[in-house]
């Protein structure tokens, strides 16, 4: 399993490209810092005889990028808008937890609605729009052809956002289905199902016209995710089918599966593509990547039941969920070991590449959140952590520290290719990274400690319930501090994105490297695109 598989793993590279870093719109001089790390590691071999072949293949790649530019840009613009609104409502909800009188004069600004609006803006606004945009951009690159069916994706995007806006409006006025992650009324949800199905169609059409003989593992992850989501959501929102205890079981079947079978595969597909491309080295073991995919597909389906520990559900169902949660250690280990071995000797490249800095941090958080989730499913841990802020901290570790941070890194790589323009202010990328990293760090640590103390207080029969509330107050304030930093980071990101989209600011011909370095001699630099 640990043997290198260069033929399968190298399909994402063009001829002679392995060993050379890729950062958008780079000149040899500006990429020298990145390339120097790889060259010093003995991975780069410059073969002048392959220059013409590489030039032709890079021209095909440019055509593929151009075919996705408008569709990808549309999705990413929607993602940024929802990220800003979701951040605002999340911050309002956080403040209300330790200052209940904050913004209480309007019904739609009460905690029950602002928190639900925040969740749906994140779960069905920022996250899927970013995921769809990045996936559609990667698809032609991985299949080495242009995008087919882009108009279906645009139509799906319109239906999806129309459904989301209508759903958020219904939640704001107090109309919802009362199930976490499934609050949008089912009559409106039809638009999301149709939109998701339409967005997945370009995968089918582009696959039929592919120019590669081997489907890279990222295609497996993206293909599964793009078809799993409409099915999951359709089953979850089926009217007049789910009632009582069975409805609660279905609720957490959906709630966990949308995380593990939609958001997670898209993020893993991104890591498996961007990380090797940036450092110019195929993943260490292609076999491990396939084990990770199939283990995720087989073991994740029933993990949601551990949220019902102690509930009036069959004992075997809870046990099955706990077993599958622990079995998830297999795909997580496969991914984590694979990524670490791939990055071995190349960690210094994070000093130069903004994309890699986000991607590697997000990949590390996948390992941490997944291991925490597996052990949190155990009855001994769940007894304390259940119904506390501890589970909220864990959810943000997965959906934000893992998924969102990977998406940030991917967007920093994709947008220069989409716009044929460079990020105007590299220092804003640094500011964004540290704001969101410090923010989620404070958020996670604060809520984890506060949630655990809250659980212990609730288990103590000698203490009144209010003691379990009061003990969390300092940690809820820490949550707001972390959320404020994250929101500021998102605003910096949004402003920079708008500047990029409008081609505002200093014109750059090279990549937005975080740290400049003296140029290497031209003979040591790689002139590829």
UniProtKB/TrEMBL annotation:
<keyword id="KW-0812">Transmembrane</keyword>
<dbReference type="InterPro" id="IPR000883">
    <property type="entry name" value="Cyt_C_Oxase_1"/>
</dbReference>
<dbReference type="InterPro" id="IPR023616">
    <property type="entry name" value="Cyt_c_oxase-like_su1_dom"/>
</dbReference>
<feature type="transmembrane region" description="Helical">
    <location>
        <begin position="286"/>
        <end position="303"/>
    </location>
</feature>
<feature type="transmembrane region" description="Helical">
    <location>
        <begin position="356"/>
        <end position="375"/>
    </location>
</feature>
<feature type="transmembrane region" description="Helical">
    <location>
        <begin position="395"/>
        <end position="416"/>
    </location>
</feature>
<protein>
    <submittedName>
        <fullName>Cbb3-type cytochrome c oxidase subunit I</fullName>
    </submittedName>
</protein>
<keyword id="KW-0472">Membrane</keyword>
<feature type="transmembrane region" description="Helical">
    <location>
        <begin position="214"/>
        <end position="233"/>
    </location>
</feature>
<feature type="domain" description="Cytochrome oxidase subunit I profile">
    <location>
        <begin position="189"/>
        <end position="529"/>
    </location>
</feature>
<keyword id="KW-0813">Transport</keyword>
<keyword id="KW-0679">Respiratory chain</keyword>
<feature type="transmembrane region" description="Helical">
    <location>
        <begin position="121"/>
        <end position="140"/>
    </location>
</feature>
<feature type="transmembrane region" description="Helical">
    <location>
        <begin position="253"/>
        <end position="274"/>
    </location>
</feature>
<feature type="transmembrane region" description="Helical">
    <location>
        <begin position="152"/>
        <end position="172"/>
    </location>
</feature>
<keyword id="KW-1133">Transmembrane helix</keyword>
<feature type="transmembrane region" description="Helical">
    <location>
        <begin position="315"/>
        <end position="335"/>
    </location>
</feature>
<feature type="transmembrane region" description="Helical">
    <location>
        <begin position="428"/>
        <end position="453"/>
    </location>
</feature>
<feature type="transmembrane region" description="Helical">
    <location>
        <begin position="473"/>
        <end position="498"/>
    </location>
</feature>
<feature type="transmembrane region" description="Helical">
    <location>
        <begin position="184"/>
        <end position="207"/>
    </location>
</feature>
<keyword id="KW-0249">Electron transport</keyword>
<dbReference type="InterPro" id="IPR036927">
    <property type="entry name" value="Cyt_c_oxase-like_su1_sf"/>
</dbReference>
<feature type="transmembrane region" description="Helical">
    <location>
        <begin position="70"/>
        <end position="92"/>
    </location>
</feature>
<dbReference type="Pfam" id="PF00115">
    <property type="entry name" value="COX1"/>
</dbReference>
């Amino acid at each position: 399993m640990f043997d290198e598989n260069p033929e399968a793993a190298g399909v994402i590279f063009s001829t002679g490209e392995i060993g050379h870093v890729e950062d958008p719109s780079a000149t040899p001089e500006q990429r020298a810092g990145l390339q120097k790390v790889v060259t010093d590691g003995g991975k780069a071999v410059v073969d002048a005889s392959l220059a013409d072949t590489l030039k032709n293949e890079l021209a095909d790649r440019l055509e593929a990028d151009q075919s996705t530019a408008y569709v990808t840009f549309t999705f990413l613009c929607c993602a940024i808008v929802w990220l800003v609104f979701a951040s605002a409502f999340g911050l309002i909800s956080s403040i209300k937890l330790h200052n209940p009188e904050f913004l209480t004069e309007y019904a739609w600004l009460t905690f029950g609605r602002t928190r639900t609006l925040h969740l749906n803006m994140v779960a069905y606004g920022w996250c899927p729009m970013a995921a769809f945009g990045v996936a559609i951009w990667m698809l032609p690159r991985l299949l080495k052809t242009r995008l087919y069916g882009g108009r279906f994706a645009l139509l799906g995007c319109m239906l999806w956002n129309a459904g989301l806006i209508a759903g958020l409006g219904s939640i704001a006025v107090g109309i919802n289905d009362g199930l976490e992650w499934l609050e949008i009324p089912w009559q409106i949800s039809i638009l999301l199902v149709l939109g998701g199905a339409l967005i997945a169609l370009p995968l089918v059409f582009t696959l039929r016209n592919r120019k590669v003989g081997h489907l890279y593992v990222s295609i497996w992850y993206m293909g599964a995710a793009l078809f799993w989501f409409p099915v999951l959501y359709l089953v979850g929102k089926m009217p007049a089918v789910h009632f009582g205890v069975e409805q609660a079981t279905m609720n957490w079947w959906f709630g966990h599966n949308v995380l593990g079978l939609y958001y997670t595969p898209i993020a893993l597909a991104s890591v498996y593509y961007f990380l090797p491309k940036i450092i110019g080295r195929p993943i260490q073991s292609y076999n491990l990547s396939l084990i990770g995919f199939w283990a995720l597909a087989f073991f994740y389906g029933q993990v949601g039941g551990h949220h019902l520990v102690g509930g009036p559900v069959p004992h075997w169902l809870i046990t099955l969920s706990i077993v599958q949660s622990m079995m998830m250690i297999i795909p997580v280990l496969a991914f984590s070991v694979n990524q670490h071995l791939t990055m071995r000797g190349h960690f210094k490249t994070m000093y130069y590449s903004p994309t890699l800095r986000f991607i590697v941090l997000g990949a590390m958080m996948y390992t941490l959140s997944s291991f925490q989730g597996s052990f949190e499913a155990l009855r001994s841990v769940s007894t304390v952590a259940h119904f506390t802020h501890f589970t909220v901290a864990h959810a943000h570790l997965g959906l934000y520290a893992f998924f969102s941070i990977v998406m940030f890194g991917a967007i920093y790589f994709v947008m220069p290719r989409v716009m044929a323009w460079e990020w105007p202010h590299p220092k804003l990328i640094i500011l964004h990274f540290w704001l969101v990293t410090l923010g989620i760090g404070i958020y996670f640590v604060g809520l984890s400690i506060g949630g655990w103390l809250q659980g212990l207080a609730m288990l103590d029969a000698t203490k009144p319930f209010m003691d379990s509330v009061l003990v969390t107050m300092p940690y809820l304030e820490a949550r707001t501090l972390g959320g404020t930093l994250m929101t500021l980071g998102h605003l910096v990101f949004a402003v920079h994105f708008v500047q990029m989209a409008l081609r505002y600011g200093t014109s750059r011909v090279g990549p937005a490297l975080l740290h400049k370095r003296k140029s290497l001699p031209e003979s040591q630099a790689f002139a590829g695109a």
